[in-house]
């Protein structure tokens, strides 16, 4: 029961309770209208704790010893516990600190303490004590502390110091909020010390803690309403920036005071209320230093800082880049920084890919230009070499086996053939050489090379280099030119051996591999089965600058006087490109490794057959019309035809060939050059002749292939094509096949 007359000093406590209840009501209304504004809920909880505490003190003033007074004392301790919990909740919410663990762990602990308070006498005893305050007509009676009472007081004191530490440690936070909050905490703690001394017998008018409660609740309410006003005033800015893809961030007094959703997404957290060091906590140390320096420079007079690119993700320092562009502004009548954050990760990645693509296109154009130059020179050289290679065959057929002239003539022919091989390399680089692809096994090509004179010569010049072959026993087949595959192997092995200065080794390895995803650096390669040819050495490696140019025609680092024209790796590159394959090159100080991918074919290789003797390739006087715009080529071809038993005729152009057909009718076969200038080319000539003689047979002669005219001529009905310069056995075999009966 409460006494009949109210103690005068208790009027202050009742007034505090009423004011606190009004504050609770206001904040409850605001929270109901804006449920997302959680700060208002925590501040309302602090006001509610002040209401409970002041009301408890009022009842203790006016109630005699008994259940009501004891209940008021229990409520007083409960209010203190509520206040501690709401202190931390308010601070966590204001500073955007994740307080889930605190609320879960300490919430359970506080419920346990409340249970001890209300169901036992360990915290609050069943006995009462009297406090004799100045001016009181009767003693102030309250429940005495139990055995754990001092521990509860110590816990409350330490918890208050913890809240103070949180506020003090928040660097750069709004100073007026911090000063007001800390002052309220200090006053509340001083009032608590005063009341503790009063409980120990110090003369005083009455307890003051409830007034500290009220003042502190008022300060928290002011902070909450100020933040609500700030957020409300920012709504117009937030509406503009909410759907922007760039992040907008306003920094004032070293703290973030405004952000949009895109900014939160870029930073990975909310930045509002935090200093720069905290909301950029994911940035690398170097990036954070750059950001600080940049923001400092922006605030300088007439600053015109260029945007900076920084990494905001420590775990991926080369990928997640953010561009920050900042300017000094006036925000709410005070200086501030407006920073625009833009995610540059995809853009930088695309720029890098574009640069790589442009670099590849530039290299391809350069190689194409060099290839065209090489191809043009090679085509002219082929015509010049035809006499050197073809006439010796005619001369040797006229000379007796014992003639002393046979050896120099053979030497001349072999020299011509070596020159033809160089020209062939030039044409391969030009990606226009006439090649016939057959089904082959790379293991067989390696075996042929390892038994060749070129390999023996290589071993003789490099006795300190050991060459090892590790060949897959069940290697799949590919479809390619045997000559080119042999040259690829020869060039890679010879380059590897020449790169080794002292003792070393070269490893040749073959394997089958299934590619189910794009290869590194080659996204356009198709998934499928590949034969892998690997040539690795343990030499000094290739420099990074040279590695970018090794496939360029005529690029070589070999010492003057040693072998090498700079066409070897260019030839390798072009062969792989024509195959639709891929080259992977890795090199360091421990050696270089070339890994070549050849698409697999499931066709079987043809059985090896011995060459047909020349006397079995003779014809029976069939009429053959040779069409070529170069006189020497016509003469050589006609002489070879005569030696093979055919009756040759010659035409110097496509138009002349048409006139001959119209005048004499068809011939048994055409030997038709594809490139003739001026006038119509070989394809157009053959097309017009076919219109006159539908069944006209033809053999295409060219130094080029993979051109549309050659493909069209073959589709039109041409039996074969031959590569210049023409050798008598190759011509005889082609004629034999052309005149062979069907089936």
UniProtKB/TrEMBL annotation:
Residues 376-602 form the Histidine kinase domain. Residues 623-739 form the Response regulatory domain. The keyword Iron does not apply. One of its GO terms (molecular function) is phosphorelay sensor kinase activity. It catalyses: ATP + protein L-histidine = ADP + protein N-phospho-L-histidine. Its EC number is 2.7.13.3. The modification 4-aspartylphosphate is found at residue 673. Pfam families: HATPase_c, HisKA, Response_reg. CDD domains: HisKA, REC. InterPro entries: CheY-like_superfamily (IPR011006), HATPase_C_sf (IPR036890), HATPase_dom (IPR003594), His_kinase_dom (IPR005467), HisK_dim/P_dom (IPR003661), HisK_dim/P_sf (IPR036097), PAS (IPR000014), PAS-like_dom_sf (IPR035965). Keywords: ATP-binding, Kinase, Membrane, Nucleotide-binding, Phosphoprotein, Transferase, Transmembrane, Transmembrane helix, Two-component regulatory system. The chain crosses the membrane at residues 6-32, 39-59, 71-90, 102-120, 148-167, 179-199, 211-229. This is histidine kinase. The lineage of its organism: Bacteria, Pseudomonadati, Thermodesulfobacteriota, Desulfobacteria, Desulfobacterales.
